[in-house]
Each structure stands twice: as structure tokens, then as C-alpha cells.
Design brief:
The complex is a heterodimer. Chain A is built from twelve helices and eleven strands. By secondary structure, chain A is α/β, with parallel strands linked by helices. The radius of gyration of chain A is 21 Å and the shape is globular. Chain B folds into four domains: 140 residues, no CATH class; 209 residues, no CATH class; 107 residues, no CATH class; 57 residues, 2-Layer Sandwich (Alpha-Beta Plaits), CATH 3.30.70. A four-stranded antiparallel β-sheet of chain B has the order 9-10-12-11. In chain B, strands 1-3-2 form a three-stranded antiparallel β-sheet. Chain B has a three-stranded antiparallel β-sheet with strand order 6-8-7. The radius of gyration of chain B is 29 Å and the shape is globular. The chains are: A alpha/beta, B alpha+beta. Chain A: This is General transcription and DNA repair factor IIH subunit TFB4. Chain A: One of its GO terms (biological process) is regulation of DNA-templated transcription. Chain A: One of its GO terms (cellular component) is transcription factor TFIIH core complex.
Chain lengths: 336, 552
């Protein structure tokens, strides 16, 4: 049985994030255009290593997350349309389609950005975001998981459950292997507190799906959401720019880094020495209102949101706490 | 068998194709690495860690040993083993070369300085360099994307191309007729081979008939592989001169050898490789350019995408010489059912196009896995077998074997070790018995092969029902193995027998020596007698002589 792996790459294209990424002097200037080129190399490497890999790309900005339908990838494209890629399109693109992927990636991304920022801009704002700073992380995250879920279902349909996994005994490990799925975040924005629940739910969902969530932070900022997602799903979280000395950054090449660290799938990863987490990784729970890291907090019994002080009604789900049991005081992390 | 895995330490987890590559001489391998398509395919057949290593250094081009050691996670259980396999594979395939660093400045001035360099030389480790052409090709792919020569058939092509089901049936029939010839043994004649194929409802391919027969002398291949024997099998009459010659010089009275029967029961991918491998060795000098081109062609073919076509000339690589050779190989493969050749209806020149079949996918299959389950060998069932629903073997605990199949090949194979009970149009019912299996053992088919065959070709239903239990009941598998063991109750080992030792000490010393070497077969302390394997005779004699002189 050929292993069918799937990977969704989430690109943070929010203006704010890129404003921050670029803001640090001239040498290490890094633009979205560079990112796209490096990403293209990484995509090629992915497909080169395993021809059956399916790749999807989700782009998120402040308002929403959208899937880039990269038709030039042909059957390797992880797509929403159930019937696979439209034949005519595929014909056009994969016919000796060299260099088309990069073009495709650029035009699609540019089109998206144009529509978002320079279009009429009166679209409804999704995700209930605060103005400006964050990005639609939760929306992108759930979109990825939906995609992967659909991919897994189609795999199951195709092969039937447990059948065909080889001669003799059904190889459960093999089944597990076939359905390797991953999400890779190229993230730069800061966390939005109001997305905490959605992101955590998505992380637990990913854990159930067996999806590994990896993160590469583009800016120097850390994202505790994604740190937690990585630790829950057994993924990797790296923040190269914050960790490395500045002289290394000049020599830094994103594509090489991505190939070194994120190319290996979860099976091969066990054998490789890879950066483990991030030095300042704090898996501390944050208060939903004040965004302060907490050691002791109050947990809502309905939606499990956490606050730094006792409240009458839950600020997230609106539950009224009539007695003490409804809002529990808990030690959330122990120091040292 | 040629596929006797001589390079098993490396190829145990890799594909047939890479074990084939390992057998090639280095010159040819380097030539193969010159083509971008081949590089792409070879990279995909590598073990996962090796792939990572290749891509990690594909821009820098080299890595020191210390660096490599740093890549592997110390806490991983089999990591180090897999690491070694990866590096060994890369070295064996010629993708990496081990280079010992040049000792710098041997002719240095001061004594003191010389000492320090000597020291650093001792610490210095080997570096691995990547094959330059391979590196360049990988870089191009990374920067520009993967190039695929395979395209969707155009509208005009589609009108003349067979449907997926027809193609499946056709290629399967091609392949089956070859195996059936082996299974049928003496009765059939390879000369009738092509006419048999016509009659078994295959697609008429206007092109392949003459070209294929010319390109591939199947009888020759099978004989060279020792699957087929000329003349009568050695039962009593082994007079070589007695072989009947028929008018056109063809030899009558071939018989299938023990290896031939074993071959029938092997997995399809292995069968295909055995034949293709031998064909290439026979036809082409593997040291030459042609050999490299042929291998490149096979590599490209194995990693095609289903239902896509390609112009034959674009597969032949960069060299113009390759063209004629490629079409030769293509004709041969078409005859085996690995390819479907057709002329492009749109162009007047009549350039040949290639449509790979489901069998050509098997070319790049991993050695132990079996993508198609039993279906690839599932007989010319066509649509039924391709959808995976209807064909297969069910073995019951009462030794009965039900095979849902219409293929005469499958029946012929089952008859090798089953007692036929009755046959319906789509069903063969047989019984495994000691007698039937003994006949198989005599023909050279082992118990493991029988059980494996039944397992591999099991009906899909059995997978579903017994999700975790073996698809062939254990009692049956055990009986078959026991029956085989019964035939091997007595074994003859030539031995040397020692008697009348001069002293107890001498006897004990000799006994100890024989035991130590693991050559002792039998001993009796009371009478001071022992029997030693004959191949140890000389060693034993010198030992006893020495012992005697020592004691004296």
C-alpha cells in the first residue's frame, strides 16, 4: 500500500505580521515574495520525496482564511471539490508544467491579497476579530483540519477499511502510516485571546485525527497557541529568528531550513535530531480577559475558559455561576 | 533465481528497482544518474532517511561524518541502524561518495607544526560528497518543479485507446499467457504463444506482433533463468543428444524446472522483475550506454501516473542513440503486457506513444509489499478484478479451497497443489491433501510458497471478516508445513567416522575440537566413536596428528 500523506501549509499573509517581520533592519529583510519562493522550493522537495503527497495551502490574513486552489499541482492538490481537479484545468497545467507551480502560487496569492485589501473591503468580517493585529488563526486551523478530514475519508473510501493493507494479517501500524497528515504554520501574527477556545478545540481535534501540527514562526514573536498545539499533537515548534544569533540570520535560508526540519514526516522524524520546542516555550495558560499567564486561575465548568479572578458570569460563554462549584479555582501550572 | 537477494542487507526494505541498480556496474549507474527523470525516480525509491539526507545536502553537496552523526536522534531505537542503511544505500548507489580528507600541508616547515597537523589528521573524519550530476539535477527540480513527461491523452487518442478495463484485461492476459505456458509445462509450445494470445480475446495491437517477437525471445529468457529446460527432465533418460529437432530448428519437449514451478507462485512484482532483469542482461551490455538508457527507461516507466500517456521518444533520454533501443525495449515490454503501444492518430509521422498498464506499476514496487493484493495475478478478470470485489481464494479449515476465478492460469497453478473437486464457470473448488501437496513438493514448490500464495491471493472478503486473524487458517498452514517436513525426515550428510582412539584423552580432545567447530554429528563415549561432517575431514586429521605428537 502506498503511503498517502497529506500536508496543509498555512501562510500568514496578514499585513500586520509582515510589518513586524520586516521591521528589523535591512540585512535580514524578508518579504512575502521571498517566502513564496522559498515555499515553492519546499513544495518541490515534498513532492520529490514522495510523489503521492497531497499538499494544500491555506492563506490567512486579518479577516479570514482561504484555501489556495493550486491546480498546477494536479492530483497532488488537496482540494475542496469532491470530484478531484477539473480535468481541463489539469491538462493545461501538468502538461510538462514546469515552473507553473510558482507562477500559480504567486498569481493566486496576489489575487487573494488584492481582493482582500484593495477590493471593496466591505465583506463581512469573520471570526469576531479585534481590529488589526491578529489574524484568522482559528479559522485557518479549522479549515486545514476539515481538508485533512475529507482527505482521510476519501482515502478510506478508496481502499476500504482494513482491506488491501497487505498479505496476511492486517497491519494496523500500516494503516496508521498511510494516513499521515500534517499541518505546517508559517505564522507571524500575535495571538488573539478571543480565539483561544477555537484554537484549543482545533488542537484536540487534530490530536484525534492523528494530525501533527508544526509551526515555524516568521517574526520574533512567540505564539503560545501554536506552542500548545505542537505539544498536544506531537509536532515541532520553532522560532528561528528569536533563537538564533543575528549573524546566523543573515545566512538564513528559509527553504533550506524548511527542508532540514519540516520535510521529514512524523515517521522519519523519530530518527532525526530536530529542534525541540523553543527555549522560551511557556505552556502557561493565559487569562481569557487580561491575557496574563496564570499559575492559579478560575475555570468555567461549561466552556473551560480560564480567568484570573472570580466572575459572576463567564465572559466567554455567558454561563451564570450560581455557586462555587461552577467556577473552580485551580492550580494551572506549578513553578519549578 | 536471479532475485536471490544477494544484496539483501541493503535492499530488504527497498524496491526491486534499487536492487537492480545495485547490480549495475558503476559506469552505468553514473550514466543513469545523468538523466533528470531517473534521478527523480531513484530519489523516490530511497529509504526515507536517505531521502532526507540527500535533500539536506543537495545545496552544499557534502557532509562530514560528524555532521551526519549529529543528525540522528540518539534516543531513537532503531535510528542508528536505519541511519547506517541509509548511508550505505546512498554509497552503494553511487549517489554519495566517501572522501577521506586530504591531509593538509605535509611539507610544513617546523617540527612542532607538523605534529599538530598529524594530530588533527587523526581526528579528521571522512566526508561524504554527493554525485555532482545528481546534485545538479535535484537542484533543478527543487527550483523549477518536477517535470513530468506523462500527459493526459488527447481527445483523438482517447478514441482509439482501450478503456481502463480493457487495458487491464489485455495486459493481464499477456502476462498470464506467459505464466500459463510455464504452468502447462510440456504440452504447449512457445511458437503458439502469440496465436494463443490472439484467441484469448486480447486487444489487437497492430504494432506489437512482429516487433515484440523479434525483440524478446521469451524461450531464451526462460531457459537462461533455468525456469525452463530443454529436453526431458532428468527422469531416467538424460541423453542430451536425444532431443528432437523440428524443422525450423526449434526444440521440442521442454519442461518446466523446479525453479519454474516456484516462479509461478511468487508475487507478480518479483516475477516481472526476474523476467525483465534477465532480458536486459541478455540483450544489452550493461556497461554500455544502451544499458544505462534501458534502465532509465524502466525507471521512468515505473513511476508513471495511471492513465497518462507519453511519446516514446521523450522517454529515451537525451541521447539520440537511445531511440532505437528504447523502442526495442518498449516492444519487448509490450509483449509482456507491461505497456500498450499505439500510434498517435494526430500526427502523420506515426510516432509511437506509450500507455503504461497496471503491471508496469509493479516495476517500482517495494519488495515486500503488494500493492494490488492478489489482484494483479488475479487472472484476466478485467473489470471485476480491478474493482477488487469478486476474485480470490477462500481456504476453509476443512482443507477445502474455493477460488473465485475465471482465469485458466490460476486454475493451473492451484492444480499444482490442490486436488480438483469440481469446476464451475467462475469457481474452482479443490482440496488440499497430503498427496496433492507431496506432488507439489516433488515439483519443487515449498510449503511456504503455497501458504504465501494462498494468503496473497485471498478473497477480499476474508480480509474483511478476519480483520486480525490470518486469512489462511493456521491449522491449514501448519499442516502444509508439516507435510513438507515429513518429506524431509531423513537427510543424508556425508561424514567421516572415527573409531579406536588410542586414549580417552585423545578422544575427548577430538570431540571437543569437533564440537567447537560445530561439525560434530554423533558421538558415543562408551565406545569412543564419533562422526564428523566430511568437509571437516582434513582439519580433523591435522588436529588429531598434532594431538598425538603432543601427547607423545
Amino acid at each position: 500500500m502506498e503511503e498517502e500523506t497529506a500536508l496543509v501549509i498555512v501562510v500568514d499573509a496578514s499585513l500586520f505580521a509582515w510589518h513586524c517581520v520586516q521591521g528589523k533592519g535591512k540585512e535580514d529583510e524578508f518579504t512575502l515574495g521571498d517566502l513564496v519562493e522559498h515555499l515553492h522550493v519546499f513544495l518541490n522537495a515534498l513532492v520529490l520525496v514522495r510523489s503521492t503527497t497531497k499538499v494544500g495551502i491555506v492563506v490567512m490574513n486579518e479577516r479570514k482564511a482561504s484555501l489556495l486552489p493550486l491546480r498546477s499541482l494536479g492530483r497532488r492538490c488537496l482540494c475542496v471539490t469532491s470530484g478531484g481537479v477539473n480535468n481541463k484545468d489539469e491538462d493545461e497545467m501538468t502538461t510538462r508544467g514546469r515552473g507553473k507551480v510558482l507562477e500559480d502560487l504567486k498569481t493566486k496569492l496576489l489575487g487573494l491579497i488584492e481582493r482582500e485589501y484593495f477590493g471593496d473591503g466591505q465583506e463581512a468580517r469573520g471570526g469576531g476579530l479585534e481590529e488589526g493585529k491578529g489574524c484568522a488563526l482559528s479559522s485557518a486551523y479549522s479549515k486545514c483540519l476539515c481538508l485533512l478530514r475529507r482527505h482521510l475519508e476519501s482515502c478510506e473510501e478508496e481502499h476500504g477499511l482494513g482491506y488491501g493493507s497487505g498479505p496476511g494479517e492486517v497491519d494496523l501500524e500500516g494503516l496508521e502510516r498511510q494516513r499521515r497528515t500534517r499541518v505546517l504554520f508559517l505564522h507571524g501574527s500575535q495571538d488573539v485571546a478571543s480565539q483561544y477556545i477555537q484554537v484549543m478545540n482545533a488542537s484536540f481535534c487534530a490530536q484525534r485525527l492523528g494530525t501533527v501540527v508544526d509551526t515555524f514562526m516568521l517574526g520574533r514573536r512567540d505564539s503560545s497557541f501554536l506552542q500548545q498545539a505542537a505539544s498536544i499533537t506531537g509536532g515541532l515548534y520553532t522560532n528561528f529568528f528569536a533563537d538564533a544569533a543575528s549573524k546566523d540570520i543573515k545566512k538564513f535560508s528559509l527553504s533550506t531550513y524548511l527542508i532540514q526540519v519540516f520535510l521529514a514526516d512524523s515517521g522519519t522524524r523519530a530518527d532525526l535530531q530536530l529542534p525541540q520546542g523553543h527555549s522560551s516555550a511557556s505552556l502557561k495558560v493565559t487569562c481569557f480577559l487580561t491575557k496574563k499567564a496564570l499559575d492559579i486561575g478560575f475555570v468555567c465548568s461549561v466552556c473551560l475558559s480560564i480567568f484570573n479572578q472570580k466572575l459572576q458570569t463567564c465572559a466567554v460563554c455567558g454561563t451564570e455561576f450560581s455557586d462555587n462549584r461552577a467556577l473552580k479555582k485551580k492550580v494551572l501550572s506549578r513553578q519549578g | 533465481m536471479t532475485l536471490d537477494p544477494s544484496s539483501s542487507s541493503l535492499s530488504s526494505s527497498s524496491s526491486f528497482i534499487s536492487s537492480h541498480l545495485l547490480k549495475l556496474p558503476a559506469v552505468t549507474r553514473d550514466r543513469v544518474l545523468d538523466s533528470e527523470g531517473s534521478c527523480q525516480v531513484i530519489l523516490q525509491t530511497l529509504p526515507p532517511l536517505a531521502k532526507q539526507y540527500c535533500l539536506r545536502i543537495c545545496f552544499s553537496g557534502e557532509a562530514s561524518e560528524a555532521m551526519l552523526d549529529g543528525w540522528i536522534a540518539p534516543e531513537s531505537k532503531d535510528g542508528l541502524k536505519r541511519h547506517k542503511v541509509a548511508v550505505e544505500t546512498l554509497l552503494a548507489l553511487g549517489i554519495w561518495k566517501k572522501v577521506d580528507e586530504e591531509p593538509p600541508h605535509q611539507h610544513t616547515q617546523s617540527n612542532k607544526f607538523r605534529k599538530t597537523t598529524a594530530k588533527s589528521n587523526a581526528v579528521r573524519q571522512a566526508t561524504y560528497k554527493m554525485n555532482e550530476s545528481f546534485m545538479a539535477k535535484v537542484q533543478v527540480i527543487l527550483q523549477q518543479g518536477i517535470r513530468s513527461v506523462w500527459t493526459e491523452p488527447t481527445q483523438a487518442m482517447r478514441s482509439i485507446l482501450p478503456t481502463r478495463e480493457e487495458l487491464h484485461a489485455h495486459s493481464q492476459a499477456c502476462w498470464d499467457s506467459l505464466l500459463l505456458f510455464l504452468a502447462g509445462g510440456e504440452g504447449e509450445d512457445l511458437g503458439n504463444y502469440s496465436s494463443n494470445r490472439r484467441s484469448s480475446g486480447m486487444l489487437a495491437m497492430e504494432i506489437d506482433a512482429e516487433g515484440g517477437d523479434k525483440a524478446l525471445d521469451l524461450e531464451m529468457v526462460l531457459t537462461r533463468l533455468k525456469l525452463l529446460e530443454r529436453g526431458a527432465r532428468g527422469k531416467g533418460s538424460n541423453e542430451d543428444g536425444d532431443v528432437e529437432m523440428v524443422g525450423d530448428g526449434k526444440v521440442q519437449g521442454r519442461s518446466t524446472t523446479r525453479e519454474g514451478f516456484q516462479f509461478l507462485l511468487r508475487p507478480p512484482a518479483e516475477q516481472i522483475w526476474t523476467i525483465v532483469d534477465e532480458f536486459l542482461q541478455m540483450q544489452y551490455d550493461l556497461n554500455g550506454e544502451k544499458g544505462a538508457a534501458a534502465v532509465s527507461f524502466l525507471l521512468q516507466l515505473g513511476f508513471c501516473e495511471e492513465g497518462k500517456t507519453c511519446e516514446l521518444s521523450s522517454l529515451s533520454g537525451e541521447s539520440a542513440k537511445g531511440d532505437a533501443m528504447t523502442s526495442e525495449v518498449a516492444f519487448a515490454l509490450a509483449k509482456l503486457g507491461l505497456l500498450y503501444l499505439f500510434k498517435n492518430p494526430e500526427s502523420k509521422a506515426g510516432d509511437l506513444w506509450v500507455l503504461p498498464t497496471h503491471l508496469s506499476k509493479l516495476l517500482c514496487q517495494k519488495q515486500e509489499e503488494d500493492v494490488f493484493g492478489g489482484e494483479a495475478l488475479g487472472g484476466g478478470g478485467g473489470p471485476a478484478s480491478s474493482s477488487g470485489g469478486e476474485e480470490g481464494i477462500i481456504v476453509e479449515t476443512n482443507y477445502r479451497v474455493y477460488a473465485y476465478t475465471t482465469s485458466p492460469l490460476k486454475r493451473a497453478i492451484l492444480e499444482l497443489f490442490c486436488l480438483e473437486e469440481y469446476v464451475l464457470p467462475n469457481l474452482y473448488v479443490g482440496r488440499l491433501s497430503r498427496e496433492s501437496c507431496n506432488a507439489a513438493f516433488e515439483a519443487g514448490i515449498g510449503a511456504e510458497l503455497i501458504v504465501d500464495y494462498l494468503r496473497r491471493n485471498a478473497h477480499p472478503q476474508t480480509y474483511r471478516i478476519r480483520a486480525k486473524t490470518p486469512v489462511v487458517p493456521e491449522t491449514i498452514a501448519d499442516s502444509v508445513r508439516l507435510w513438507e517436513a515429513e518429506t524431509k525426515r531423513l537427510a543424508m550428510t556425508p561424514c567421516a567416522f572415527y573409531d579406536k582412539f588410542e586414549s580417552k584423552e585423545l578422544y575427548l580432545e577430538s570431540l571437543g575440537h569437533a564440537k567447537e567447530r560445530g561439525k560434530l554429528l554423533w558421538s558415543n563415549d562408551e565406545n569412543m566413536r564419533l562422526a564428523v561432517k566430511l568437509d571437516h575431514y582434513n582439519d580433523m586429521r591435522t588436529f588429531i596428528k598434532e594431538a598425538k605428537s603432543r601427547n607423545a
